[in-house]
């Protein structure tokens, strides 16, 4: 019976997915008949670099009404971000302070296997990277072992146990919420996250003006878990806040033993507002949400420039699956979901791009590459030996060196400068993770310039055409600053486009 209902869901998903594709095709056809010029912009960069956040900023600037309409559909995703953070907090507490929740295990072994460090730097020739420290239970804390000696922290245990019990039912509904969000269109959910592809909003917003009645019918059924989670959040908001503020949790965060997602602290700080029964996500909430993009999603904006209307198509290419080869052309044409196995390839093959090149939808006019320069002390989730700045540089190098993309205008956004400032202010040393940084001062100006210089140098070495590179430092959660950059980048892309077709 289980498999029958699953295949039914899959059939629904395929039907809805095809209906959305058809919808987009018709919209595009209409625009083409109206003679609107298409400007294709690809957003590229590693996972969590801020591509979807930039897309939301575009939407906010050029289509604020559509963002307003979508607001309610972000509510379950905000809840999902909170549940994920709570789960991570409980997992780490269980690990660090097993006595607070359970009797010591008979073997006494911690519930994970540390990853062996490697000295290999995959980029090799730009920076020298220091391998990550392997995670070990807190050696200095007597709570990581099974000491019977009482310590000052043991006074925390009764409260931690109480808060844990209160929060546990919410954490237990994470999977159910993920399934509800994943129903129909999204591909998978669960402990790893919820993935999204275009059209998902229709599934979680019964009232959204998406013109497909089937989707509306589907979405109307899919709010039961969201409502239960909302009620449970409301009933336990004080306990959630106490847990978040608890010295045990705060100290785990401070010492990096607990690495929550970057938006987690924002949502946990705001838990009372978010737990209101009539809560609707604010613009700040929508920008802070973390929702992994799977495959490629297309977003369309009508933009007036120089007295003419252009149809901008923004392709938000999920960073977890580095879709730069064959799947890209297919994805651009059909918005398909790309399996995780289709990892980044080093070169694009001529025939891969032939389809895009000769199709009416054509090659991208511009590429906006996002590199989160705050990530110098982080490693890839899928490869914990690769430093994230190293990964960004490699990806950037692949993109600029590809001869099939040379006609695209190139914009580089060195993103998350706010987090970079915070980390440097907290004394997190760059040279600890990037040994080639040496004795340079650990200040924002020095560090940001160091990264900028390395990206520019990479382009100089790898780009066969040495085309202009427009570089911006960005903090994508800052609406005012980002919107000024969007205007600036838009104009640069248009200038470059007009000159490439001989009109400027
Ligand atoms: N502090 C801070 N957070 C940011 C910034 N830009 C994005 N974020 C946050 O970083 C997280 C990841 O951003 P996304 O836009 O989802 O990243 P993405 O590149 O689309 O990631 P994938 O879909 O996995 O490829 C979100 O929680 C954003 O709110 C920034 O400049 N500063
Ligand atoms: Mg994304």
How are the SSEs ordered, and which strands pair?
Elements: H1 2-33, E1 37-44, H2 51-62, H3 64-96, H4 157-172, H5 174-182, E2 195-196, H6 200-204, H7 213-221, H8 224-245, H9 247-254, H10 264-269, H11 271-274, H12 283-288, E3 292-293, E4 296-305, E5 308-317, H13 326-334, H14 350-358, E6 366-372, H15 388-401, E7 409-415, H16 417-425, H17 444-462, E8 469-473, H18 479-500
Parallel strand pairs: 1-5, 1-6, 2-3, 6-7, 7-8
Antiparallel strand pairs: 4-5
The structure holds guanosine-5'-triphosphate and magnesium ion.
Guanosine-5'-triphosphate (GTP) binds at residues 45, 47-53, 262-263, 287-288, 290, 292-293, 318-320, 415-416, 418-419, 474-477.
What sequence of helices (H) and strands (E) makes up the elements?
A: HEHHHHEHHHHHHHEEEHHEHEHHEH
Stated plainly, the CATH topology of the largest domain is called: Rossmann fold
Give unreliable regions as ranges: 1-8, 103-125, 136-147, 184-193, 196-221, 322-361
Overall residue-averaged pLDDT value: 76
Helix content: 40-55%
Whole-Å distance between the termini? 64 Å
Strand order of the largest sheet: 4-5-1-6-7-8
Overall outline: globular
The CATH superfamily name of the largest domain is P-loop containing nucleotide triphosphate hydrolases
**Radius of gyration from the alpha-carbon trace, in angstroms:** 24 Å
User: What hetero molecules are in the model?
Assistant: guanosine-5'-triphosphate, magnesium ion
Biased composition (Low complexity): 136-148
InterPro entries: Gprotein_alpha_su (IPR001019), GproteinA_insert (IPR011025), P-loop_NTPase (IPR027417)
Biased composition (Pro residues): 101-117
Region (Disordered): 1-20, 100-148
